[in-house]
Design brief:
Layout: H1 6-12, H2 17-36, H3 42-49, H4 53-81, H5 83-102, H6 107-135, H7 138-169, H8 172-193, H9 208-220, H10 222-252, H11 257-285, H12 287-310, H13 317-342, H14 349-374, H15 380-398, H16 400-404
Helix pairs in contact: 2-6, 2-7, 2-8, 3-4, 4-5, 4-6, 4-14, 5-6, 5-8, 6-7, 6-14, 7-8, 7-11, 7-13, 10-13, 10-14, 10-15, 11-12, 11-13, 12-13, 12-15, 13-15
Length: 410
């Protein structure tokens, strides 16, 4: 339920609950849209610019690194000045950077503008998570976040097949132009329907001493470390799929761009199912047990994918079906982890969200960089990578979250 006193929360915003969920879905949906819509075009883009596979993957990894670093800036700025001005500036910059990406004349320029795009996107991602803490107590926040992530899953469902279709029909530049359109539509909806949610602006949020103290406070909190570890390692498994799957399915297995887009649609539908499962599990067994059960799903998915790859099963379905199972577990881990990481910090939700996002994106950058030098023309880097991160996710879900996640389970 709304954070006590409920009347105080209601007075801060007259937004209906459905509007809150819609805006959250669009804000946190910027991230999967900016990757999934683009993935089917990666092999063609590599050929078009005469670039290496590692250079093409830099267009992803540079974006996620900039996304992570920028959150350390956007989070405290939103605590100081409010969520609304940060969102408006960030989304305008995102739309402009997306147009620049579509017009890029070299791989180096595309990498640069993708990094700018990621930095601008950080405003939406960090404020989206902070808004949940502005308005809701931890358990209700996890439920609201899971609803928003169901909306995110709708965006993720549409992105790969749309990206594949646009790339097949018109080329990758049109696919990237679509990102600018989405950014401008989200900006218009924010101008029309978003009211400031921060309970009280913190005038000291940007003071260097206070900023460092907030970051240290966040990092020292065991509940933050537990849930942040969960979101980070689960996302590392997802980013392994994002960074490697287009090359594996299109170049190794010979699938078309549209066919690959449909495969990623199946992944997104599975993620959506996971977010629905998340809400039911939270209601019935609580956050910690929900995460523990999802950890078992993650481990089973990774083991199936890795085992079938080692056995040499020559079928894309041997990858796709375990991937879908992995995404169901991911659909539980992310809402619980993201709301849990910020739950102990009602007065510093922006800073907590920023640190959580920074850690997650730095890990994604490391995963993408490793894959860029280890893709060997087989399915194994993808399959074994997902297996590894699935095992680590299960370990975190069964240990750290069970030991320190109690503050989010009420």
């Amino acid at each position: 339920m709304l954070r006590s006193p409920a009347t105080a929360a209601a007075s801060r915003t007259a937004m209906p609950a459905g509007r809150v969920v819609l805006l959250l879905s669009l804000l946190i949906g910027l991230q999967p849209l900016s990757t999934d819509l683009y993935l089917p075009a990666l092999p063609a883009l590599t050929t078009g610019f005469g670039a290496s596979m590692s250079q093409a993957q830099l267009t992803l990894t540079a974006m996620v690194l900039a996304l992570g670093v920028s959150q350390l800036f956007w989070g405290p700025v939103s605590d100081r000045f409010g969520r609304r001005p940060v969102l408006l500036v960030g989304l305008m910059a995102y739309a402009l950077a997306s147009i620049a990406c579509a017009l890029a004349t070299s791989m180096d320029l595309l990498i640069f503008w993708r990094a700018v795009q990621g930095a601008a996107m950080g405003a939406g991602v960090v404020c989206g998570r902070a808004i949940v803490r502005d308005l809701y107590e931890p358990t209700e926040g996890a439920r609201v976040m899971s609803k928003a992530m169901s909306g995110l899953a709708v965006i993720a469902c549409a992105s790969p097949p749309l990206g594949g279709l646009l790339s097949d029909l018109f080329g990758w530049r049109v696919a990237l132009t679509t990102l600018a359109v989405f950014g401008l539509v989200t900006l218009a909806l924010l101008l029309w329907g978003y009211q400031e949610t921060i309970p009280q602006k913190n005038p000291q949020a940007l003071a260097p001493g206070k900023l460092l103290a907030n970051w240290l406070m966040v990092l020292r909190h065991p509940t933050f470390r537990a849930f942040s570890a969960l979101t980070t390692v689960s996302y590392a498994g997802l980013f392994t799929i994002l960074a490697a799957s287009s090359f594996v399915y299109i170049q190794v297995l010979g699938w078309s761009k549209t066919g690959y887009g449909l495969a990623m649609l199946a992944n997104s539908l599975s993620y959506m199912a996971g977010t629905f499962l998340c809400r039911r599990l939270i209601t019935r067994v609580g956050v910690r047990r929900a995460v523990a059960l999802a950890g078992g799903v993650s481990l089973l998915a990774g083991t199936l994918m890795g085992g079938l790859a080692l056995a040499g099963v020559p079928s894309g379905w041997a990858l796709l079906l375990p991937q879908c199972l992995f995404m169901i577990g991911h659909g539980v881990h992310q809402p619980c982890g993201q709301s849990g990481a910020v739950s102990p910090f009602p007065q510093a939700a922006g800073a907590a969200s920023a640190v959580n996002g920074f850690l997650t994106m730095v890990m994604a950058f490391a995963v993408g960089s490793w894959l860029g030098t280890h893709m060997d023309g087989s399915v194994r880097p993808l399959a074994l990578g997902v297996w590894f991160w699935s095992a680590v996710t299960a370990l975190v879900a069964w240990t750290l979250v069970q030991r320190h996640g109690h503050s989010n389970d009420r």
